[in-house]
Amino acid sequence: MMISVSKLTSLGLFALLLSGCSGLIPDKPQRQTGIEYNWQEQIPRLSDSEKKRILDLTDYDELDELVKDTLAANFDLRQTALRLKEQQLLAQNSHATRQPELNLQLDSQRIQEQTINTHPYNSHNLVLNLNWELDVWGRLADASLATDAETEALKADFTAAQNSLTARVIQSWIDLSLRQQIINSEQQRVKSLQNTEAVIKDRFRNGLGQLADLESARVATAQALASLASVRQSQQEAIRQLAQLRGINSNQIKLKLDAVPQIQTPPVALPATVLGQRPDLIAAYHRVLASDLQTSVSHKQLLPSFNLMANLSQNQPQFSDLLSGSSAWSLLGRMTAPLFNAGRLKRDAKIAELQAERSYLVYQQTLVNALNEVEITLSREHSLNQQQQLLTQAKNHAQVSLQYYQARYQDGLADILDLLNAQQTAFDSKIQLLQAQQARLTNRVTLALALGMGV
Questions:
Q1: Which helix (H) or strand (E) holds 111?
Q2: pLDDT tens per residue across all 455 residues of the chain
Q3: Where does 124-210 have alpha helices with state H?
Q4: Whole-angstrom Cα distance, residue 51 to residue 29?
Q5: Alpha-carbon gap, residue 229 to 146, rounded angstroms
Q6: 329 — phi, psi (to 5°)?
Q7: Exposed (0-12), middle (13-18) or buried (19+): which is 21, by Cβ within 10 Å?
Q8: Reduced DSSP (H G I as helix, E B as strand, rest coil) percent helix, strand, coil of the chain, to 5
Q9: Domain ranges of the chain
């Protein structure tokens, strides 16, 4: 078969046009998405047999149920899940743009021509239209990949929200448990001061001591009762906040708060392993990919687009005859190219480049934040460990001192103010130790979250 010179010329011009336009597509930027880093703190390394979930750090079945119920009912998390479903549907729509579009059109009309001796007649037209944009430059493919990357980012966002909510529930449980221990200590303080008042009354009846001693003891008791009321109010507020996370309005909680919770220290892996499982960093990385692909889409909007259109139609006076007889068809290839738009498309491409650069900066910031979070929580774990040991020693010494002054006061060898100071120091030391335990356990959960441990 011979090909005419005009056809060869047309093909040559078309090939030249394609090669010239392809030079307008910018190269994909090379971005550094890793970092060389070593932990500054001396820490245990993660082995394959180590636990990977935050809940694995504690063996408390009721807490597992609480977390499960909260994840199912929390309103914020459910909204995040809906946003993810919306994005998945948008991604499916983006993929659909690469496929041919087929439409069916049916027109029926009654026509009266403006001529003599003519009668109205019916006209029924059935048309089948096919429209397909040829993705010569890969613009539609890049747009689909961009939506896929954004979908992956939202999946990571959902995982991060789940992990964060899990950590908040566990930390709320720690907070409630340790505050209950503080409430118990405050109650013991009040009982101890009331016993001191009874001792003062007995000594006064026996002609020992002064009535002013009783007033001093009553002042201390009133202050202890006020402190107890404040802690109880904080406990009720914390219970309601936990209920709000669970999507309910109640001040009831099924957890037992009569013991100090135990949270294991999370094992730490190498930096690359840690960062690879953090969902916030995964989300930031996929948004960098999505932004780069959107930049490519914006640049390819400057290039010509190619469409293939086919039309199959049939016109009959009777509706029942539409699917019989011969049909008319047409096939059209169309190329459109932007010529003048006041620089709008170029500015759109430049905006896309700036947005991609901003996404990359967000990724880098997220990376640095992730490293700092791990370092800070590791350092805090060591510091709180030292504080807990020192406060344990202080509590023990304060208890010995209290016993000493109680004996001396009963023997009439010590002043009431010395005894009251010893009581305050003993109970304050116990409460400070409980607060340090609370801070340390809460920090362990924060460390687990920083390491990418989740549900």
A1: strand 101-111
A2: 444 545 444 444 444 455 555 555 666 666 665 555 554 554 444 444 455 788 888 888 888 888 999 999 999 999 999 999 999 999 999 999 889 888 888 777 777 666 656 677 677 787 888 888 888 889 999 999 999 999 999 999 999 999 999 999 999 999 999 999 999 999 999 999 998 888 888 877 776 667 778 888 889 999 999 999 999 999 999 999 999 988 887 766 677 777 778 888 887 766 666 677 889 999 999 999 999 999 999 999 888 888 888 888 777 767 666 666 666 777 777 888 888 778 888 998 999 999 999 999 999 999 989 889 988 998 999 999 999 999 999 999 999 999 998 888 887 778 888 888 999 999 999 999 999 999 999 999 999 999 888 88
A3: 139-205
A4: 38
A5: 56
A6: -140, 160
A7: middle
A8: 65, 10, 25
A9: 37-98+137-302+344-450, 100-134+305-337
Which pTM does this prediction carry? Answer: 0.82
- Class assignment of domain 37-98+137-302+344-450? mainly alpha
Locate 411 and state its tokens.
Answer: 């023997």
Q: Are strands 328-336 and 121-134 parallel, antiparallel or unpaired?
A: unpaired
What are the residues facing 129 on neighbouring strands? 103, 311
Contact 210, 200 (CB under 8 A): no
Q: Which amino acid is at 244?
A: Q
Residue 306 host element (H or E): strand 305-316
Distance CA 393, CA 430 (A): 10
Please tell me the CATH superfamily of domain 100-134+305-337, with its number.
Outer membrane efflux proteins (OEP) (2.20.200.10)
Looking at the DSSP bridge assignments, the partners of residue 103 are 129
Rounded to an integer, what distance in angstroms lies between the CA atom of residue 103 and that of residue 426? 84
